[in-house]
Design goal:
heterodimer, A: 147 residues, alpha+beta, five-stranded antiparallel sheet, three-stranded antiparallel sheet, 8 strands, 24% helix, B: 332 residues, mainly beta, elongated
Chain lengths: 147, 332
């Protein structure tokens, strides 16, 4: 699996890496439509940059369990004390997502036991973008659609 | 209201305080804990691991450097985190801030973790270790009780004073250790493992890096609990440059809302009003005029009403009258 963004960032400072990653997200030609996990579906729209910061809008739907979806009023959720309002801005956006079969390996040696562990990722900004959107709306209460 | 998600800088890391290796005595018999808690033993810095250890352990089977001998000792791990929150405006109002980390491994004894404010600068060093006696002097920003669970995805620290202490001009920096570390002043008589593991920030960034989620309001408008003010105009005049107004009033919780005109008069140049009212949940909405008068140039109205979910929609007139070569033409 190619890692073009990671490869291009070799030698960059942390600030340069953050700016470069942001530009890659803003330049997405065909961003993914939505991510569905369990009873929650999220979608992103209007991906852009504001002052060098990645920005997008997020929408959330809750499943009624019978194939239907209800749009969540994020502004009402915000007033109720939940977080995840629009627009969403992201500083230093991630580009790697966990993938046991991925070819980006991170290893560490435990300072106590000296056991070496590896974690594997793949470079996938589509999935990363949707995961950010999903995480940022995680605490939003879904509408109660149970019959 | 905006949401800012800040993934941690790669300057994060661990400062580990070990008790002196010269003490070949079991816990309780020596001063392992007291020495480590005071930073009087050995201090080590680690910033290259894919995880950060927070907490401590006190063991009788602790390896020494040559991996051959066993001895007893105490290890205290402080996790240091840095988030670039400078994109938040000076006058912006932060209403919520949540510090989140991605657990990967847990000790056998649960502890209450405390995230405290410590501006340790742009690079981490062993001198940034905070002794147990001083740890409580740093502002408690948030806490998390490991008894509530320590498994991925993210665990979210509970707020204490984080929103009020978000640094709007630089990085918001935190140090994490346990309340036990802060309060346990004498050497414990038993061994214990309260070292907890969570992923650190990555060179390229992963969706499981430490993060700070900040909810804030831009400083343009204000929130009024009671009767709001009357504004003749939000912006009186713009002479040059572009002007974007995402919303005149974003949400009216109760009571009526009247917008007499979004744009009263445009002498020259283009004016775009994407929506007069984007969403009305209940009740009626009256927009007396979208644009009252245009002196020159073209007028584009993408939609008067974008969508009506419930109840009826009445548009008395889309266009009332247009003067065309001196001839008045009725609208439709």
């Amino acid at each position: 699996m190619p890692t073009p963004i990671s490869d291009a960032m070799v030698g960059m400072t942390p600030e340069e890496r953050a700016a470069y990653k942001t530009a890659q997200f803003a330049a997405m030609v065909n961003p993914p439509d939505s991510l569905t996990a369990g009873t929650r579906m999220v979608a992103v729209n209007n991906i852009t940059t504001v002052g060098g910061i990645l920005q997008f809008e997020v929408a959330v739907w809750g499943s009624d369990g019978m194939g239907g979806w209800s749009l969540v009023d994020l502004e009402a959720a915000r007033i109720a004390g939940e977080w995840g309002g629009n627009p969403v801005r992201v500083v230093n956006p991630p580009i790697l997502v966990p993938d046991p079969g991925g070819d980006v390996e991170r290893t560490s040696e435990d300072p106590i036991t000296h056991v070496v562990t590896s974690t594997f990722y793949r470079e996938d900004i589509d999935q990363a973008l949707m995961q950010i959107a999903y995480d940022v709306t995680e605490k939003i209460t879904l509408p109660n659609n149970e019959m | 209201m905006s949401t800012l998600v800040v993934y941690a800088d790669t300057s994060d890391g661990i400062v580990q305080a070990q008790s002196s290796k010269a003490q070949a005595t079991p816990p309780g018999a020596g001063t392992h804990w007291v020495d480590a808690r005071a930073g009087a033993g050995v201090l080590l810095l680690s910033q290259t691991m894919s995880y950060i250890i927070i907490g401590h352990n006190q063991s009788v089977d602790w390896y020494d450097d040559d991996y051959e001998d066993y001895t007893s000792g105490a290890n205290i791990f402080q996790g240091f985190y840095s988030f670039d929150t400078s994109s938040i405006g000076d006058g912006d109002s932060v209403s919520a801030a949540v510090f989140s980390i991605w657990p990967t491994g847990a000790g056998s004894v649960t502890r209450l973790f405390e995230a405290r404010l410590s501006d340790w600068g742009t690079s981490l060093g062993t001198s940034d270790f905070i002794t147990g006696a001083n740890f409580g002097n740093y502002t408690l920003a948030a806490h998390y009780d490991a008894a509530d669970g320590w498994s991925f995805p993210y665990v979210n620290f509970v707020d204490d004073a984080l929103p009020a202490n978000i640094n709007k001009t630089g990085a918001t920096r935190l140090v994490v250790c346990t309340s036990y570390f802060r309060t346990q002043t004498t050497n414990p008589s038993t061994t214990s493992d309260s070292s907890y593991y969570a992923l650190s920030s990555d060179y390229a960034g992963t969706t499981s890096d430490p993060k700070l989620t900040v909810t804030y309001e831009a400083a343009v408008g204000e929130v009024y609990d009671g009767a709001g003010p009357t504004l003749d105009a939000w912006i009186v005049a713009t002479k040059t440059g572009t002007f974007t107004a995402n919303a005149v009033l974003k949400r009216s919780q109760a009571g009526s809302f009247t917008a007499n005109a979004t744009i009263k008069k445009s002498i020259a140049g283009s004016s775009t009003a994407n929506a007069v009212i984007k969403w009305t949940q209940v009740g009626s909405t009256t927009a007396a005029a979208t644009i009252k008068r245009i002196q020159a140039g073209s007028l584009t109205v993408n939609a008067v009403i974008k969508g009506s979910r419930a109840s009826s929609l009445a548009a008395d007139a889309i266009r009332l009258r247009t003067f065309w070569f001196g001839r008045a033409e009725d609208g439709f």
